[in-house]
Amino acid sequence: MQTVTDFDEAQLLANYQAVSDALAVANAKAIETNDEHCSAALLAVSKTKPASMIEALYRAGQEDFGENYLQEALGKIMALSDLPITWHYIGSIQRNKTRDIAKYFDWVHTLEREVIAKRLNEQRAGMKPLNVLIQVNIDDENSKSGCQPEEVPALIEQVMHYENLNLRGLMVIPSKQGVDAFARTKALFDAMAAQFDLPHWDSISMGMSGDMAEAVAHGSTMVRVGTAIFGERSYQ
Ligand SMILES: *Cc1c(COP(=O)(O)O)cnc(C)c1O
Asked: What is the pLDDT of residues 8-28, one digit of tens each?
């Protein structure tokens, strides 16, 4: 993989400031209409971007970074191992990748299958529990990953008994046309909280560069922003 290590730091920091400000405004608005709103945090999605950019953002105060491609991510995690960064795995999970994901990440946003949950739980043994979110295919699109909303309860029932997994909530990537997908995600999140006794159920990962404010208005607790911070990617 070819990565650019030379970048415009002033531009990166200006983008980061603008996204942080926009998120603060969205959070303030959400609190006005819902006093139970808990501020959404910013996850900087650094896929395809070099470790040097991550380090610059870390120095500016960003601690949470999201990566999609395991090999690429491991290189950056090793390169930056002296910084206490919180790493989030947000890519699709193949069975043969679970060991490294369990070993090197703090969060996984893309749990959608029981076999993967079982492997992550086994391979996380001896470490602090791995924070996991269940990815839901909220728009029922064949092309998107995530389990179906009606499959969520069975997956929860399995994961809630795993001592090395800390079940935190849901993650969605709605389609651009998705009508009220954010509201449906929040409703599902609340229904699961009512149905199960889940002591750490507190997170909804939704919203990206293009729809961050709308996601926050509907109860997102973590927005995943790549392009608006790092600029366009030359490949996905
Ligand atoms: C790439 C990616 C993002 C960031 O998308 P932007 O539109 O660049 O902000 C968020 N979530 C997931 C799962 C991604 O793969």
From this structure: 999 999 999 999 999 999 999
Residue 225 CB less than 6 A away from ligand 1: yes
What is the pTM (predicted TM-score) of this model? 0.95
Instruction: Say if ligand 1 is within 6 A of residue 173 CB.
Output: yes
How far away, in angstroms, is 85 Cα from ligand 1 center?
Answer: 19
Q: Is the CB of 76 under 6 A from ligand 1?
A: no
CA-proximal residue: ligand 1, atom 10 (nearest): 224
* DSSP sequence for 81-146: TTS-PEEEE-S---GGGHHHHHHH-SEEEEE--HHHHHHHHHHTTTSSPEEEEEEB-TT--TTS-S
Quote the pLDDT of residue 142.
65
140 pLDDT above the threshold of 90: no
